[in-house]
């Protein structure tokens, strides 16, 4: 295997890749040779924090790396939309061999962050929106794609959770709970796909410098600099490298695992 192009021949769908971390992941997979379907909930979503003019512009910047790229839109919490997206990608690029479920985030029903955002005060409509766009969306995308992977006896799924899934906090509570459920769903799905050789893993990033992260919270300037200290925010590429590893044949015996890429924020087992 040529490590420089270790994903050559793979066809990847990265949800939420019009911008932010999903875009960084799609970019890294394409650099390593994968053809990539770029997805977002709408053509306009990549412009929300000024990253791209629209989804076609995100996809064009991936295609400029010399791989096949296409844009596809749809709400991941709508089952018929997920099925239509998968059909569109597979008829254009071919059978999907890598699925990265990155779409999601601590986004309230009406946009922005939930307020209140704690265990007892968070609004019911926000709880439902958070579970829809994180856990349910991840499950529906897996249900639309993994059976085909199982029939072909090949494929890799990387779900994106969060460091927030791994410890108790008094904020981002519904979000952290939905992400913890994604970690557990990953293990359960891994039990179901083990015999068929479809690998399923989850990456839990720590705070990462994406457009939305920077725009929606008060950031600590001392955590911005990428020097020797690991007590800082991640660069999206640092998360993307871990996803690329799990998506590749380099991780051929890694299955059902949670990889916490958080600079050692969570230094404990489990
Ligand atoms: N940035 C961080 O600090 C951080 C840390 C841990 C985990 N994460 C996770 O990484 C992922 C990406 O985060 P980001 O910082 O790049 O944020 P982002 O908002 O830029 O990216 C999320 C993407 O998902 C899309 N999306 C949201 N709901 C959707 C839906 N229902 N259907 C289709 N698409 C939908 C958005 O439009 C966007 O493109 C999220 O799952 C987030 O929870 C981020």
Order of helices and strands: EHEHEHEHEHEHHE
Largest sheet, in brief, is: 7 strands, parallel
Radius of gyration: 17 Å
> What's the average pLDDT?
97
Poorly predicted tracts of residues: none
CATH architecture label? 3-Layer(aba) Sandwich
Structural shape = globular
Q: Could you walk me through the main structural features you see in this protein, from its secondary elements to its overall organization?
A:
The protein is of the alpha/beta class and 270 residues long. The protein has one domain (3-261): Rossmann fold (3-Layer(aba) Sandwich). It is 38% helix and 13% strand. The chain contains seven helices and seven strands. The chain has a seven-stranded parallel sheet with strand order 3-2-1-4-5-6-7, sandwiched between helices. α1 (20-31) links the parallel β1 and β2 (35-40). α1 packs across α7, α3 packs parallel to α4 (124-152) and α4 runs parallel beside α5. The protein is globular, with a radius of gyration of 17 Å. The two termini are 32 Å apart. The site of nicotinamide-adenine-dinucleotide has 27 residues, from α1, α4 and α6.
